[in-house]
């Protein structure tokens, strides 16, 4: 029986303009997966209009779902019950997976069974089609909570949270993505790091599309909460989790 990596994508009505490109980037991963592995794409509408899911191809490896609108973090978490994979990877609806990205994620977690999560570097995809590497990408190797927290405190967070791949048992133990109005991808990375070492993959895992319609470019995104309070909350929740002393342990089923 094949093993599976599930890619979760949240999308809202009106935000599906690049969803077909995202689908193609997931489809192209299938040929490069290690022997015995499959990919599942779990697409979750943040809302109940049905319009973002309407044009998805009727293929068995694509799972569609919807629920009452609550933001991207809630949508991703609501998709978790349909994720059949032992590994879960995030992909935004307007972004792209880089060729071979999932194969590299699987290889990293297979090579380091005590590591609960991995993350890859990213490329900004500009409107003119050119790409720019991230300015703070760490080198290949183990990532610790201390170095990520230090980068967070310096406002130089060194990884792209939307490139996270995590063992599903760890993600469930953390309650999925935190229901925050923003920075939920940063928060889940810090929470993962608080209870488990991670692994940095130097090769780009995806392309982060820069465009005028993206959620993080809108003024409403930065106005959803007082960012000083949000920043403090993200840090405090990770720190309190760290001080509990609980640490994630590999599930024998996942090894």
Quick summary:
The protein is an alpha/beta fold. The protein has helices at about 20-25, 70-80, 100-110, 145-155, 170-175, 185-195, 220, 225-245, and strands at about 5-10, 35-45, 60-65, 85-90, 95, 115-125, 130-135, 140-145, 165, 200-210. Strands 1, 2, 3, 4, 5, 6, 7, 8, 9 and 10 form a ten-stranded mixed β-sheet that branches.
Distance between the termini: 14 Å
The biggest sheet amounts to:
10 strands, mixed
* Structural class determined from secondary elements: alpha/beta
Shape: globular
Series of H and E elements? EHEEHEEHEEEHEHHEHH
The helix count comes to 8
Oligomerization state: single chain
Helix content: 25-40%
Instruction: State the low-pLDDT regions, or none.
Output: none
What is the overall pLDDT average? 93
How many strand units? 10
- Estimate what percentage of residues fall within beta strands: 15-25%
Radius of gyration (CA) equals 17 Å
Write a structural description:
The protein has 255 residues and is an alpha/beta fold. It has eight helices and ten strands. Strands 1, 2, 3, 4, 5, 6, 7, 8, 9 and 10 form a ten-stranded mixed beta sheet that branches. Helix 6 (184-195) runs parallel beside helix 8. 42% of the residues are buried.
